[in-house]
């Protein structure tokens, strides 16, 4: 399955741009980050919910690191994002 199939380009692009803007660096994500996004899409996690979960996980990690997180990835935040998704589903 191509990551650039028509059905998921908007979901992928939206999440990619959201995350890159949030962290303030980078031009694209890693292959593992793209794979993770397609997994969330296949689970039908709404893009708005996913972006809120990513932002919450990112901010929490940023607070713990006490500074900018230029090197962080979605894969690195996966557990925290999953926790946020589960919280919202309750």
Can you give a write-up of this model?
This protein is mostly helical and 90 residues long. The protein has one domain (9-89). It is built from four helices and no strands. Helix 1 (9-23) crosses helix 2 (31-42). The longest helix is centred in the middle third of the chain and has 19 residues, at 47-65. The chain is globular and about 35 Å long. The relative contact order is 0.16. The model has no long low-confidence stretch (mean pLDDT 87).
Principal-axis shape:
globular
Distance between the termini: 32 Å
The sequence of SSEs as H and E is HHHH
> What is the typical, i.e. mean, pLDDT?
87
Radius of gyration: 13 Å
Quick description:
This protein has 90 residues and is mostly helical.
SSE blueprint and pairings:
Elements: H1 9-23, H2 31-42, H3 47-65, H4 78-89
Helix pairs in contact: 1-2, 1-3, 3-4
């Amino acid at each position: 399955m191509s990551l650039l199939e028509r059905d998921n380009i908007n979901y992928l692009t939206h999440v990619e741009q959201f995350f890159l803007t949030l962290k303030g660096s980078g031009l694209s994500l890693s292959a593992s980050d793209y794979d993770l996004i397609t997994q969330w899409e296949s689970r039908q996690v709404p893009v708005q919910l996913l972006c809120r979960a990513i932002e919450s996980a990112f901010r929490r990690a940023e607070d713990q690191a006490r500074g900018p997180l230029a090197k962080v990835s979605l894969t690195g935040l996966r557990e925290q994002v999953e926790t946020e998704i589960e919280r919202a589903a309750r």
